[in-house]
Automatic annotation (TrEMBL):
GO terms for molecular function: ATP binding; double-stranded RNA binding; L-threonylcarbamoyladenylate synthase; tRNA binding. GO terms for cellular component: cytoplasm. Residues 13-206 form the YrdC-like domain. The keyword Transcription does not apply. Its EC number is 2.7.7.87. This is Threonylcarbamoyl-AMP synthase. InterPro entries: DHBP_synth_RibB-like_a/b_dom, Sua5-like_dom, Sua5/YwlC_C, Sua5_C, T(6)A37_SUA5, TC-AMP_synthase_SUA5. It is found in: Cytoplasm. NCBIfam families: L-threonylcarbamoyladenylate synthase. GO terms for biological process: regulation of translational fidelity; tRNA threonylcarbamoyladenosine modification. The keyword Methyltransferase does not apply. It catalyses: L-threonine + hydrogencarbonate + ATP = L-threonylcarbamoyladenylate + diphosphate + H2O. Signal peptide: none annotated.
Length: 386
């Protein structure tokens, strides 16, 4: 049985053509939806177009960009002539492309401009699955470099409205594709090491568990299953940590205009984390108000956690809850995380508190973003007993 596809929406086609014109003829960046977060795209192979991404975002020049393709033939135009894709990469691409997985490839400086790679020997490439992203790249008929469509250091946008508030007047066209499904950025993977390991530089929309499962299934027959190593969890790399090549290592990241506190409530927090009971923590927050006005506190917790279900003391504190889905569904937490930070900021809260989630499945990416948003001085062990 076959069904006839209906193609309507002349508006969508017109919008894609206008966006493509802006990219290809005017060499200006365009904001567009992907399944992870909104991207700020420009022609990857044109130095002046790519440089406008950096100026629009206020992005440091030493932070490399991901190149987005809409097809495998387009991927191959970007790779060195003699390069053969490894079996591990082939397995990952088969299962996760198009989708929220970015892979590092060797970069030929005669193909990829140095502004994209920040002069590194590798280039990060992904094939997004969002139909608008795919269509835009295909209509422009060129690979697009695209970081998240936010001012450098801010939470990534997951709705067109987030982009508009942040980059209004700085970008000519914002394509609105509704809310992004995944809600956190792609997983960045480096499988180019001589030891055959698959190194996760940035946890993201594709989980480490899924990557491990696919490599096990696809590579068992070949006799060797690559190890999956997560940077900072399974290994550390001083060179990476000194450079910006691991997303968010060097620069402030994911931070709204107000301070964010990460509350450890169930797992043992890392060494050096402040321990506070709820009473003294709330007292310290009241002290941040001007005495007359209540302190406005935004609180992001799973809807079924102890903190998510308790009644909050209202003496000189005005709470706004932003539920993050249930504990059992970390993909929902990931979907809501940046929206929560940006919505609470917009709501005018003075402080945002986020409860920890387990660092499993999408929870690993969530905690990676939350730790960066809070900065290490705002991790607190929060005992609700006080
Ligand atoms: O989901 C995503 O990946 C989104 C959407 C728009 O596709 N894009 C995104 O881009 O998150 P951006 O620029 O915000 O984050 C990409 C990160 C950079 O922070 C950079 O450090 C890392 O990927 N990266 C890019 N090229 C790299 C390379 N050659 N080696 C190591 N890391 C690289
Ligand atoms: Mg970003």
């Amino acid at each position: 049985s076959s069904s006839t596809p209906t193609v309507s929406c002349p508006e969508t086609l017109q919008a894609l053509q206008a966006a493509s014109h802006e990219l290809v003829e005017n060499l200006q960046p365009v904001a567009f939806p992907t399944e992870t977060v909104y991207g700020l795209g420009a022609l990857a192979l044109d130095v002046s177009a790519a440089s406008r991404i950096f100026s629009t975002k206020g992005r440091p020049a030493d932070n490399p960009l991901i190149v987005h393709v809409s097809s495998l033939p387009m991927l191959h135009t970007l790779l060195p002539k003699d390069y053969a894709i490894s079996t591990a990469y082939a397995a990952l691409m088969k299962h996760f492309w198009p989708g929220a997985l970015t892979l590092l490839f060797p970069s030929d400086p005669n193909i990829i401009p140095a502004i994209i790679t920040a002069n590194q020997p590798t280039v990060a490439i992904r094939m997004p699955s969002h139909p608008v992203a795919r269509a835009l790249i295909a209509v422009a008929n060129a690979p697009l470099a695209a970081p998240s469509a936010n001012s450098s250091g801010k939470p990534s946008p997951t709705r067109a409205e987030h982009v508009r508030r942040d980059l209004d007047g700085k970008v000519g066209i914002i394509l609105d594709g509704g809310a992004c499904g995944v809600g956190v950025e792609s997983t960045v993977v480096d499988g180019l090491h001589a030891d055959g390991s698959i190194r996760v530089l940035r946890p993201g929309g594709i989980t480490v568990e899924e990557i491990e499962r696919v490599l096990r299934e696809e590579m068992r027959a070949l006799g060797s299953i690559p190890k999956v190593l997560v940077h900072r969890r399974d290994y550390r790399d001083a060179t990476i940590e000194a450079a910006p090549t691991t997303p968010g290592m060097k620069y402030r990241h994911y931070s709204p205009a107000v301070p964010v506190y990460l509350l450890y409530t169930t797992s043992p927090p890392p060494d050096g984390v402040q321990r506070l009971d709820a009473g003294s923590f709330l007292a310290s927050m009241r002290g941040t108000g001007d005495g007359e006005q209540p302190v406005k506190v935004g609180i992001m917790t799973p809807s079924d956690s102890a903190l998510g279900t308790c009644s909050l003391p209202t003496d000189r504190i005005e709470w706004t809850r932003f539920p993050l889905g249930s504990i059992a569904e970390p993909s929902v937490t990931a979907h809501l995380l940046f929206d929560g930070l940006l919505t609470l900021e917009r709501h005018g809260v003075d402080i945002i508190l986020i409860e920890e989630v387990q660092e499993e499945r999408e929870g690993l990416a969530v905690m990676n973003r939350v730790k960066k948003a809070a900065g290490e001085c705002r991790w607190i062990q929060f005992n609700n007993s006080g």
